[in-house]
Prior knowledge:
globular; alpha/beta; 9 helices
Amino acid sequence: MKSAIITGATGMIGSCVARQLIENGIDVTAIVRPMSEKMSNLNDLICGPGKLNIVECSLWDLPTLRDKLGWEHDTFFHFGWGFTYGPGRNDAAKQESNVRAAIDAVHLAYEAGCKTFVGAGSQAEFGIYSGTLSEDVPKNPITGYGIAKLAAGRLTALECRNLGMKHNWTRILSCYGPGDNDYTMVMSAILTMLKGERMTFSPAEQVWDYIYAEDCAKAFIEIADKGIDQKTYMIGSGTHMLLKDYIYAIRDAVNPELEVGIGERDYNPDQVMHLTADISDLINDTGYKPETTFAEGIRKTVEWARNNKLDDLV
Length: 314
């Protein structure tokens, strides 16, 4: 890989991929939403040996970028996705626009000279399943978001095959790390605990698999380089704990003296109780292995939140 395009480049995973590529001398064109409030996630990338070219463009306007991306590229990472939470997550029209944007991304990749397209899917494509997730498990998404991700994965694979490009789709489990959205369980717990407040949880008996963002980014890069064409890969840590054990680990990283209200509220409707990944294909095909334990990753994430979110906590 010599040069890559990344949509959603200011997001947690996208910015990690951009950083790792630039640190290894690979040029990156980062396509970001105009006026993105997360632009600061790219600020430290100008110091790497690789070049960074920031292009502001909405996902819905990707076709306007054809013939405008400068140097020729060889790899396209598609992380951009709108309406990931709130009412838009189950809005059919909004999610359909995400599918269209993913197909537009394939055509943009082709016009830019890319030979490889890697897309970011989700565990939401499976729906509710009580067991370890792999490609052998049926896909029965129950949210508009999950349905759209599944459709985007299959349609971009078809379009890449038609255009003669290598295609890989991924299904990411729970990812956390610096730059995470405030509304996720991990970051919301960190921010609440940093304020010294008591947070209430369900019984938290879910069996969960969390992967650190830097490890997730490494997986994407390995898939781009070594993944088998038209294959989908599960991305997780390959390890799991009860959700309450993750919560206690977060508490211990912030302040071991804090109380946490485990079991003080009910599970959400349609609560997924088992979310773990079989990453054997990822390991066997690419040689990838996660490196960061949850204890280490959460320590780094808490430190980042202390340094970057304290003003928001006042």
